[in-house]
Structures are given as structure tokens and as C-alpha cells.
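explain this.
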Amino acid sequence: MNDMTQPASRLSMAEIEALFALPFADLMYQAQTVHRAHFDPNRVQLSTLLSIKTGGCSEDCGYCPQSARYDAGVENQGLLNLDDVLVAARAAKAAGASRFCMGAAWRGPKQRDLEPVLDMVREVRALGLETCATLGMLKDGQAEQLKEAGLDYYNHNLDTAPEFYGDVITTRQYQDRLDTLERVRHADLHVCCGGIVGMGESRTQRAGLIAQLASLDPQPESVPINLLVQVEGTPLAGTEALDPLEFVRTIAVARLSMPKSFVRLSAGRQQMSDAVQALCFLAGANSIFYGEKLLTTGNPEWERDQRLFDTLGLTAL
């Protein structure tokens, strides 16, 4: 058995595929060993995500109920006002979140869209929370404006492997995503970048996503791994569900490939049993979205999360 408990600077695609193929116990052991070398295994970072502008997006992402192209039952909502955002941010902080993420369903923000978001970032930061935003593709200079306003993290996911990307999205190219990530890095913002599994991709394509994420230089500080939430009316509704243990394997391989990144359980957590979530934490997940809503899909209730943390002996960072 190849010993990868000593993390390499970059794993090759072949090495990542070999990790996926390990016996489950061996993979979990290696992932937990690497996790303990870099993190307290019983501490988990908590983030809350608020949709500050919902629906009406011009993109055709096949998983997303916010696309204007699909009738998925999402009610369009314009940009929230600052007071409503601050009410949500204070509630998130009171519930134990350390980071507050603001998401807007845009292809990319126009300057007139960005101005009120900059105010939100300043005011949320003043509450003592870390700030994160996901606003779509950024133009030159926009990342610097967000940085100047006090933004800590910018989220922009790669979604899937390049080889599968065209099966899911046609209105935005893979290079567009990489270009936005480069602008974010150039502005000295922390990068939050992950993807979605369970969209009908093969294991090789899941490995390709992890390889792409791990090849970013530097590697993302935060890596959200989403499990597809199937929403009626979107093209991916009806996709064969991913085996829960394959999702756990994906978390473990992400941990081994990006040993110093926070690996976050994101969308899809509501449909996971406590046992599957426990295995994900054992595999190296150490961040979750915490709260009642994850953009337009559900998220486990705070009380359930608290019970699970108590059962597993986990505490919040």
C-alpha cells in the first residue's frame, strides 16, 4: 500500500485515482492521519450562508434552481437591504458561526450591483465576523474593491472536472472560472473553491475535480464539497444518487490532496444521516454550513447539528 500520510506538494491524477481505489479502512486511516497532522480533529469551523439576491440568473447550470431557464419553484428576490442582512448576520454570530457568506445569483456583478454589497461586507465585518461572498464572475478591479471593503474570502467553485463540465454548464467556460480565481488571488483574498459531486460523473471525473482543485497554486484555503441536491425542474433532477460511502471517499481524497485546506460539508448535508456525516468528519471534513438555509436548498436545523456535535465530541472553532 502506498503511504501518502506524508502529504506531497501536489498529487498526480494517477495518485488521486489510486487513493479513491484504496480499501475504505486504509483510505480513512490515511486521511485521518494527515488531518491530525494539520488540524485539531475535534474542532469544526462554522459558516452561515445567506442568499442576498435569489433567482433570475442567466446561466444554464444544470443543478441550479436559480437559473431563469428552469421552472424550479424558486421565487425571484431582488437584492436584500442592508438591515435585513445585518439581522441575519447577528443571528448567525449568536448561533456560533464565525464566518458569514453572502451569495447573489448573478452571472457576475455590475458595478451598480457591487456598491451595496461592499456596504454589506463592511458592516458584517464590523460585527466581528469573517466575511465571504459568492457573486459570480468578477471583472478586473472588482476583487480589489471587495478586499478594500474588508472581504476575507471569495467563493467561486470549479463545479466538476473539465472533462464533465460541458455536460452540466454551457453558458460559462471552465477558463472563465479559473480567470475569476486568478483575480481573487491577485487581490490577496482567501479562496473558497470546491465542487459538486453526484451529478452523474464517473469516479475518474470526481478524481479530476480533486486534481484541479489541488493544482491551484496556492491551494484554496477553503474547499466546499457539495452533494447534488436534486430540485424538480432542473435538468439534473432524477440523476442516480451517489452512494454515501463514495461521498465519504471524496472527502477523504480531498483531505489527502489538500492537507492544509479546510474541507467543508456544504449542500446536500441535510440528506445525509448522522452516521455518514460522522464518517465525513473522520475523513477530514472540518467545516460546515450551519443554519436554516443554504442558498435555496435546505440545511439541517441548528438543533440537529448541536446534538450531532455533542454526540461526536466536536466543538466549534
